[in-house]
UniProtKB/TrEMBL annotation:
Protein's UniProt name: Zf-HC2 domain-containing protein
Domain of life: Bacteria
Native organism: Micromonospora fulviviridis
Record keywords: Membrane, Transcription, Transcription regulation, Transmembrane, Transmembrane helix
Pfam families: zf-HC2
UniProt biased composition (Basic and acidic residues): 145-158
Length: 261
């Protein structure tokens, strides 16, 4: 593009270019970030001069002796000024400026040449936080009880009095012990809890849950219940883990116990 195209910004902003030159400059403006930026900086000035064009400036030379001619000239200019078109042009210029800002490296290659790119900060990596799993019931469904992918040593137990059956997986952790539990032949409705009994005769309730009327792993509902919990007690300090049923008065009775730890 010729140097003259870059020098037409002011003339175009003031509307003194003929239609052919104006169209040529608009084609140039669509790809020239520098001219678009310069045109944007002229918005306040053009706003102040929006009522005057090249013909009006020429007409002012004749108004020293004829004030009425000045009034007629200004009225004609105000009727004919092209505010709508100028707003569209400035919007286009602003868009080109924004695009140029987003692609600064490419613009620097065209206009700046020697400027070095500013290094950009990369994503900050944070270390994963390891915490014990939240105790409480988890989902039940097909495939529950498959020991593939379940961490810990497996322990099976069936209570001869209640008929409740359980499989538990116990895994030693830095924070204590992780417990995964599967229950079947568990009738409902009832409220249950999982209790860890330590070798020093102290106990800890690590999870509670409600059993619906159909129970889990029963003729009514064949799906077993799977839940997970954790305790601060090391595995070596645990004597047994027991599933208990709690009545409306808060009295607990054992349903099934894993003691071969």
């Amino acid at each position: 593009m010729s140097r003259a195209d870059h020098m037409d910004v002011a003339a175009y902003a003031l509307g003194v270019l003929d239609p052919q030159d104006a169209e040529r400059f608009e084609e140039h403006l669509a790809t020239c970030w520098a001219c678009a930026a310069e045109l944007e900086t002229m918005v306040p000035v053009v706003g102040l001069l929006s009522g005057i064009d090249g013909e009006a400036m020429a007409a002012l030379e004749q108004t020293h002796t004829d004030p009425a001619l000045l009034d007629r000239t200004l009225m004609a200019v105000r009727r004919d000024r092209r505010r709508t078109r100028m707003r569209q042009v400035f919007a286009t210029a602003a868009a080109v400026v924004v695009f140029g800002g987003l692609s600064g490296a490419g613009i620097a290659g065209v206009f700046g040449g020697d400027e070095k790119p500013v290094p950009q900060a990369g994503p900050t990596l944070t270390a994963p936080v390891t915490a014990p799993p939240s105790p409480g019931p988890t989902k039940s469904g097909p495939g529950v009880g498959d020991d593939k992918g379940i961490e810990g040593d497996q322990h099976d137990a069936t209570d001869p009095s209640t008929g409740v059956k359980t499989t538990m997986w116990l895994a030693s952790k830095e924070y204590g012990t992780q417990i995964a539990v599967q229950l079947t032949r568990l009738p409902g409705p009832r409220t249950c809890r999982l209790v860890v009994v330590r070798k020093n005769a102290t106990s800890e309730v690590v999870s509670t849950w409600s059993v619906p009327g159909g129970g889990y792993g029963t003729n009514t509902n064949q799906l077993p219940l799977e839940l997970s919990a954790s305790t601060s007690a090391p595995l070596r300090d645990i004597e047994k883990i027991q599933v208990q049923s709690v009545d409306v008065n808060g009295v607990a009775s054992p349903l099934v116990t894993v003691a071969d730890l």
